[in-house]
Amino acid sequence: MQISWKGLLKPAYKIYEEMLYREVMKNEVPKHIAIIMDGNRRFARRKGMKEIMGYEFGSKKAEEVLEWCWELGIRMLTLYAFSTENFRRSEEEKRNIFRIFERELKRLLTDEKTYEREVKVKVVGRKDLLPKNILDLVEKVEKATEKHKRCFLNIAVAYGGRQELIDAARRIVEKVIRRELMPEEIDERVIEKNLYYDNELYAKVDIVIRSGGDQRLSNFLPWQTANSVAYFCDVYWPEFRKIDLLRAIREWQRRRICPRN
Questions:
Q1: Helix segments in 160-241, DSSP class H
Q2: Res 1: pLDDT
Q3: Between the CA of residue 193 and those of 26, 45, 137, 190, 202, what are the distances in Å?
């Protein structure tokens, strides 16, 4: 009988995961985690599949990670789903991505867990760039969950960090012109109130995680991640594991106890 290494390692992996979980739960957990879900297409190519299948697997992984975060008591999760630069991709790829996004929004809208856990769903980005059917669905999901205050899920779509800051600056200038705000009143909190989402949790990211091996933040939440812990892992997003999330949280906890100079 042939026994695979994967089968032998599975019990050990589960023991390690449980050990990490107990270690992490002894200390404070982060309030806001942001994730750059990178490596979907490379995962598909490595598996000999069409690239769109990487996004299919990636969307399922996002559902799984969402469950892990709520289980751990993390209040806000921001997922980088589609950047403003991604509009340069082929029409077919964009169409397939938006199809998956539409399906996931419908799932969030109808899933009982969204309401049992009181998950408030917010889409952050240039919503005016989205197809009308997607925009209509975004409005429905946001409206249906607007009173929820226990958990917060932000989906960054048509998002660019520099553009968010430009749009915030424009809103502030308009308020100054209308004499609703004096120039000397502009401070950090004023800027944060004019980001895409006026929420204190959104204004500060504790950990930003990027899968796929690249060690850059790719114009993702530049204001919010100014003092956050950046955690990079080599696994492609569809293969992201619970231990990767737990390791990121453990690193954040270590740096809070022993900050680096």
A1: 161-177, 188-193
A2: 46
A3: 33, 42, 25, 5, 10
| Burial of residue 176 (number of CB atoms within 10 Å: 0-12, 13-18, 19+) | middle
29-160+200-256 in CATH: which number?
3.40.1180.10
86 is an active site residue: yes
Reduced to 3 states (helix: H, G, I; strand: E, B; else coil), residue 248 is: helix
Interacting residues of 137 by C-beta distance below 8 A, sequence separation 6+: 102, 105, 106, 109
Residue 77: strand pairing partners: 33, 153
Strands (E), the chain: 32-36, 76-83, 119-124, 151-159, 207-210, 229-232
Q: What is the pLDDT of residue 6?
A: 58
Non-local (6+) Cβ contacts of 63 within 8 A are: 104, 107
Asked if 192 and 171 count as a contact pair (C-beta separation under 8 A), the reply is no
Average pLDDT over residues 151-168: 98
Question: How do residues 72-97 score in pLDDT, each as one tens digit?
Answer: 999 999 999 999 999 999 999 999 99
Q: Give the model confidence (pLDDT) of 121-143 as tens digits.
A: 999 999 999 999 999 999 999 99
Domain ranges across the chain: 29-160+200-256
What local confidence, expressed as pLDDT, does residue 4 receive?
54
Quote the CA–CA distance of 193 and 7 in Å, as a whole number: 51
| 194 among known catalytic residues | no
* Cα 227–chain centre separation: 17
Catalytic residue among 38, 40, 96, 154: 38
- Rounded to a whole number, what is the distance in angstroms from the first to the last CA of the chain? 55
